[in-house]
Specification:
The chain has 102 residues and is mostly helical. Helix content is 74%, strand content 0%. It has one domain. It contains four helices and no strands. The protein is globular.
């Protein structure tokens, strides 16, 4: 059970699609955007920028890709006022590429 088809490990799948999104949403949306910035629009933009930088983009197009993802997640949290909404969106977003390997 440690390995699934095409050599992708179960731990990689769980880290990418479950544990990573939970951890990142608790930090970026729950703590920073929600608590520090009181879920303001400025907080959404600053937190999304930090989210992008944290992913270590090697070029501007990668930075923009992660920034847009962060804005989407931040908007989901801001509108719903529910951390589980952005977490579930994040889980789906991260799981989508894994479908190729299954």
């Amino acid at each position: 059970l440690a390995e699934v088809s095409r050599g992708i490990s179960l731990s990689l799948i769980l880290t990418t699609s479950v544990f990573g999104p939970i951890q990142e949403e608790l930090i970026f949306r729950g703590l920073l955007q929600g608590a520090v910035f009181d879920n303001s629009w400025l907080g959404l933009v600053l937190t999304s920028s930090l989210f992008s930088f944290m992913h270590g983009p090697p070029n501007i197009s990668s930075f923009i890709f992660y920034l847009l993802g962060g804005l989407l997640l931040g908007f989901a949290y801001k509108k719903s006022q529910n951390l589980w909404v952005s977490t579930l969106v994040h889980m789906f977003y991260n799981s989508w590429p894994l479908l190729y390997y299954l």
